[in-house]
Design a protein that fits this description.
79% of the residues lie in helices and 0% in strands. By secondary structure, the protein is mostly helical. It has one domain. α1 (5-27) runs antiparallel to α2. The radius of gyration is 14 Å and the shape is elongated. It starts with a helix and ends in a 5-residue tail after the last helix. The chain binds zinc ion (ZN). Zinc ion binds next to α1.
């Protein structure tokens, strides 16, 4: 599948956010903040998938 530079930018931005949330969750696994971060990373992955799907549905360059 070919993807455009906007797809890459959306993906990179979301992945950076997911990484930062995940590293926080890993550092504090037993604290409420860590558990909250673990849940947030799941939400963030879902948001990334949604954003990329919306992009794919509209973009003429991807596919
Ligand atoms: Zn695209």
């Amino acid at each position: 599948m070919k993807t455009c530079h906007r797809f890459i930018r959306i993906k990179t931005g979301h992945e950076r956010h997911i990484q930062s949330v995940l590293s926080h969750a890993t550092r504090h696994p037993d604290r409420p903040a860590g558990k909250y971060s673990a849940k947030q990373s799941v939400d963030a992955k879902r948001a990334m998938a949604r954003a990329l799907n919306v992009h794919l549905a509209r973009c003429r360059e991807c596919g």
